[in-house]
Amino acid sequence: MQNLLSPEEIATQAGGETSPNRLPESRLFAHRGQRLGTLAEGHAMGDFLRFAAGLCHAQQQRLDSLPLARRPDLALLTRCRQHGMPPLDAPGGDLPDAWQDTLRTLAATVSGLAPASLQDTLATLSDIPAQRLDTLARSILRAEEDLSDPLELALAPLIGASLQVLWTHRLSSLQAEDIPTGFEGSLCPACGSHPMASFVRIGDAGHGVRYATCSLCACEWHVTRIKCVSCHNTRGITYEGLQGESGDLHKGVKAETCPECHASLKIISMEKDPLVDAFADDLATLALDMLVDEAGFHRAGRNLFLFMP
Ligand code: FE
Ligand code: FE
User: Is the distance from CB of 37 to CB of 50 less than 8 angstroms?
Assistant: First the structure.
């Protein structure tokens, strides 16, 4: 018996794609930086967005300077595909060798752009024991960070940025077909991290196709258009946007809210605005997170430039 395909699956296949997973493009961080630079103009959080733009450009420089990533061995890739396990396991795997070199390089590149409070922290980076940085990095990868310490809170975005570079680099050794498929998970099929947001792309067939975007490695995995990514509920999903006097303030971004688990995940749509970038447009719409938070929905997306105490 033939399996029936959903309209989105048909659109994905009509686009000539053989995998429901998409790898990030090689200039990912540069594009984030450019978009953040544009969004910073006249924005209430302009200084923060400009700093974030500088950090993205530093990430791209660092990524471009790394040697070719080593491909995981075939046995591991096969096992992961068979059992639906992420081959670049972030919560359960080891920290990449010399990850702190990437941290120090990013810190040196952005220190001139950083807000004064962060500059003080960056000046003391070499005094912080390596083991403490490793512990903090591991807790960020497991999404278990407890940032009651102001120093750790200040450093967390730079550590997050470093880990993004290293996981995107590792992901560059894979083909989309290497990544497990067949289950619409709430975690990244390549690295096991939480999604940052969902992103609607325009497929070659002209239909919108929705993906969840990984907060760490930037892999995208196909998800059904109207369905809570956290709990898979499909009933009663609603959308909130930022409204001004003359209509939508940020027309490419809505918060999808689920009445079952009270999660809110942004849906960022190229159909509404072809220039959107999931990472940049997520950071530029924190006001929307506050709005839905007041309505009783917690932010389910994880953005590694954003940490709360
Ligand atoms: Fe990932
Ligand atoms: Fe839900």
Answer: yes
> Is 180 within the bounds of a domain?
no
User: Does residue 17 belong to any structural domain of this protein?
Assistant: no
What CATH number did the domain enclosing 250 receive?
Answer: 3.90.1670.10
The answer to the question of residue 280 being in a domain is yes
CA of 10 to the centre of ligand 2 (A): 25
Q: What is the pTM of this model?
A: 0.93
Residue 305 counted as domain residue: no
Statement to judge: residues 159 and 198 lie in one domain: no
Ion ligand 1, residues whose Cβ is below 5 A away: 188, 190-191, 193, 214, 216-217, 219
What is the distance between the alpha carbons of residues 147 and 139, in angstroms, rounded to a whole number? 10
In the chain, the number of structural domains is 2
- Rounded CA-CA distance 69/173 in Å is 5
The boundaries of the domain holding residue 138 are 25-171
pLDDT tens, residue order, the chain (309 aa):
344 555 555 445 444 456 889 999 999 999 999 999 999 999 999 999 999 999 999 999 999 999 999 999 999 999 999 999 999 999 999 999 889 999 999 999 999 998 888 898 999 999 999 999 999 999 999 999 988 899 999 999 999 999 999 999 999 999 999 999 977 789 999 999 999 999 999 877 778 899 999 999 999 999 998 999 999 999 999 999 999 888 888 999 999 999 999 999 999 999 999 999 999 999 999 999 999 999 999 999 999 999 987
- Ligand 2: distance of its center to the CA of 301 in Å? 12
Contact 170, 91 (CB under 8 A): no
The three-state secondary structure class of 269 is strand
Same-domain status, 68 and 125: yes
Same domain, 262 and 152: no
Q: Is 6 exposed, middle or buried (0-12, 13-18, 19+ CB in 10 A)?
A: exposed
